[in-house]
Amino acid sequence: MGQSAELTTLLDRAADGGRISAEEALELYRSAPLHALGRAADTIRRRRYAGTEHIATYIIERNINYTNACVTACKFCAFYAAPKSDKVWTRDLDDILRRCAETVELGGTQIMFQGGHHPDYGVEYYERHFSAIKEAFPQLVIHSLGASEVEHMARISGVSAEEAIARIHAAGLDSFAGAGAELLPARPRKAIAPLKESGERWLEIMETAHRLGVESTTTMLMGTGETNAERIEHLRMIRDVQDRTGGFRAFIPYTYQPENNHLRGQTQATLFEYLRLIAIARIFLDNVAHIQGSWLTTGKEVGQLSLHYGADDLGSVMLEENVVSSAGARHRSNRLELLHLIRAADRVPAQRATTYEHLVVHDDPAQDPVDDRVVSHLSSTAIDGGSAHPQLTLLT
Ligand code: SF4
Q1: Is the CB of 73 inside a 6 Å radius of any atom of ligand 1?
Q2: What is the tens place of the pLDDT at every residue in 318-331?
Q3: Which of 10, 179, 347, 364 sits in a 20 to 30 Å window from 3, CA-based?
Q4: Residue 79 Cβ contacting ligand 1 at under 6 Å
């Protein structure tokens, strides 16, 4: 099918920097040829990063999972255990601090503290842990949690979400990772996460955080049976808040993984749908600076391709990951491979900070870091033995 004159006009307008409506985004997402969509998105990316458009970024971080106990029982989740289940585990503070020490040793700059909605963990739990981490490792950025955890901890402690945010920020939380966004529109959200707060409430809490000076990234879970219109509605809800706050640093879509969860993989997003979403996000979210391609859930090749469809960031060398790997994500990488992937996509790799400043621009391959311990580990509780690098047995 050829590209209609109407779609061409619309794509040209978007590529020239014009804002498009949600209806227009849906039309492009459904009908524009894949490569035309990618070309428009890439044009927008190049213009936004004029001068550094040849660069694609990555970060070195570690997910630290503090418990799998969760009262929220999302249907797509393979990580949680019901609080009274014999599968529940928790990590003590010493264990968490050892994981932080390994992260620092390997050159990681960020941790993502991630876990279930434990029935006893209120604001005090996070205050205690964040302040202990900051005291021991002031150089580590705590980029963690999201509105769902805030809603839960505030309820446990009997305080407002605003107070919960202010207190964990004061204790050491630097920014929110935007966990729990899943799908924000009501129908698909109720279908996959019926016990989570509404999408409107999720956004309201993130807006409060932004107002309090705590910026965030934001996410989207694709492939659990949502419609194209619901995907675009998710983007519209984010863009509307961003118009008011400017607090979302990045948008990070990732795909549902089909193993070990209640949805049983009955629906999944195709890789082309993922690339189309990356492109339409770059086009539609004209007020969000960074778009991240998720090689962890879609594979390295698709992550690499996403750099030609509007993404400017390839996420992280994730030194430890237990959540999506529990649901079937098996993709692993390491720093040298990410550098190669980025160069093969005709970009210069740069290690970035949480706030996206370039820490190291790898413009000379001869100077590439040689520490081959900087490897992503799937130490998943669902994968026997995980997959730790032989030369560095991370805590599992
Ligand atoms: S996604 Fe998070 S809130 Fe939902 S069941 Fe899993 S751990 Fe709990």
Answers
A1: yes
A2: 776 666 666 666 66
A3: 347
A4: yes
